Write a sequence for this structure.
């Protein structure tokens, strides 16, 4: 008589244990990979957040870009000399296109003396090297109207303005200049201009009573 060998409890239990152990082994590996991935992603995200926080803190603590107190410092800070306003300004506040338009209007001249006899060196002038110069009444009027143009262009383009152009005091001064326009000849040397080092706001929220705003 042939007997069919039935699986013993031990062999069945061993097989179940093997299969169960295999599933548990795969499950452990899956959980290990999962948590490893979570740790990597979390670390990467935290690193990016940390870098952003540092950069944002540096930007927020530097409310205004400035140009120092000398032409060499101004150049080292990346500033430009605005010949319209006779001002060193940070690049954010420099309207190069408008400055070029102004220079194309006339063969402008500035002088070392109030009598208008000794002409300034144009190369030194464009480099912002002069502390004080003298100009014509015509220059003074165009100086005012072009600063208003600069303000208007900044408003339309959402750009920043330096403290000189953005100040109400300068607008009031230019108002008086235009009201007195009939009192002087255009080529009369009536204007004394002083070199200025201005600041420019970094963020839109930066505002000052004397100017330096973002429109």
């Amino acid at each position: 008589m042939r007997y069919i060998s039935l699986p013993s409890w031990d062999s069945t239990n061993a097989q179940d244990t093997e299969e169960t152990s295999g599933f548990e082994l795969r499950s452990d590996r899956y959980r290990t990979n999962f948590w490893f991935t979570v740790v990597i992603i979390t670390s990467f995200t935290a690193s990016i957040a940390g870098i952003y926080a540092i950069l944002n803190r540096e930007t927020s603590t530097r409310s205004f870009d400035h140009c120092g107190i000398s032409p060499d410092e101004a150049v080292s800070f990346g500033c430009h000399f605005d010949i319209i306003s006779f001002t060193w300004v940070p690049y954010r506040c420099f309207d190069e296109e408008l400055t070029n338009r102004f220079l194309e209007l006339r063969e402008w001249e500035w002088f070392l003396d109030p009598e208008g006899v000794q002409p300034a060196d144009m190369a030194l002038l464009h480099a912002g090297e002069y502390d004080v110069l003298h100009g014509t009444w015509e220059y003074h009027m165009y100086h005012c109207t072009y600063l208003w143009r600069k303000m208007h262009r900044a408003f339309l383009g959402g750009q920043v303005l330096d403290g000189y152009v953005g100040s109400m005091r300068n607008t009031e001064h230019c108002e008086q200049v235009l009201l007195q326009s009939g009192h002087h000849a255009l080529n009369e040397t009536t204007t004394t201009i002083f070199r200025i080092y201005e600041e420019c706001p970094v963020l839109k929220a930066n505002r000052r009573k004397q100017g330096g705003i973002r429109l």
In short: Residues 1-9, 11-26, 44-60, 209-215 have pLDDT under 50 and may be disordered.
